[in-house]
Amino acid sequence: MTAKDDRKNADGYNDPTAYNAIKNVEQERDNIRFRQLLYTLFLLCELEDFHIEGRVVLKDKRTGKIWR
Which residues, at least 6 apart from 59, have a Cβ–Cβ distance to it below 8 Å? Predict the structure, then answer.
């Protein structure tokens, strides 16, 4: 069995428009997850009277993307 190629439609033809749309939705979903996490970190620090002074670097376990 071969892996599914997301660049092709159900008939096996290249469909770059649909592929790009799906990728954009996935990226936006990851951006929302990151922003929610960052907001939570800042809120937690504020509640406990802390302040983040330096850069926070996070790695997404799902995608492997590193957020700086």
Answer: 65, 66, 67
